[in-house]
Structure formats: C-alpha cells, structure tokens
Amino acid sequence: MSKRSVADLKVGERAIIQAFNDEVMSLKLLEMGCLPGAEVCMGSKAPLGDPICLHVSGYCLSMRKAEAATILVE
Questions:
Q1: pTM, whole model, 2 decimals?
Q2: Model pLDDT, residue 1
C-alpha cells in the first residue's frame, strides 16, 4: 500500500506528518512549520481543489495541491 499524502486528506481530516518525497520542497515546508511528527488538519479546499488550506503548528497554511502531495502522512 502506498503512503498517503496531505493532498489525499478530506476537509476536517487530521494526520501526522511522516516524511517528504521531494528534497527541495521539503526544505521550504520545514521552514513553514511542516515538521515530521506534527499534526496537520485539512482546513478547506478551493472550489476546484487547488489551493488548499492546512492547519499546522498553530496557524493556517495555504499551498498548492502539488506541494501538499509531497508531504507524506500516517
């Protein structure tokens, strides 16, 4: 079974960040508070599904679905 990513979460669903599958993007995400072991919650999605809003590390973070797909969760 393949790992799920943040992009796979439904609105209101929570998950724990496990790892990243894009080394360059992971540096940017780490700086924004997306740390392994942190809980992330899908806050909302734009009408066409992109961008999305995540709740992580005590704040809302907007990102493109392609970026969210690089964050692997449990």
A1: 0.88
A2: 46
Strand order in 4-5's β-sheet?
A: 4-5, 71-73, 14-20, 39-45, 52-56, 59-63
Q: Residue 50's closest CA among 39, 31, 63?
A: 63
- Per-residue CA distances from 72 to 5, 47, 51, 61 (Å): 4, 23, 18, 16
| 8 φ/ψ angles, rounded to the nearest 5 degrees | -85, -10
Q: Which residue has the tokens 């995540």?
A: 54
* Per-residue pLDDT tens digits for 4-50: 999 999 999 999 999 999 899 999 999 988 999 999 999 999 998 89
For residues 48 and 32, give the distance between their C-alpha atoms in angstroms, rounded to a whole number.
24
Query: Domains in the chain, start-ordered, CATH in brackets?
Result: 4-73 (2.30.30.90)
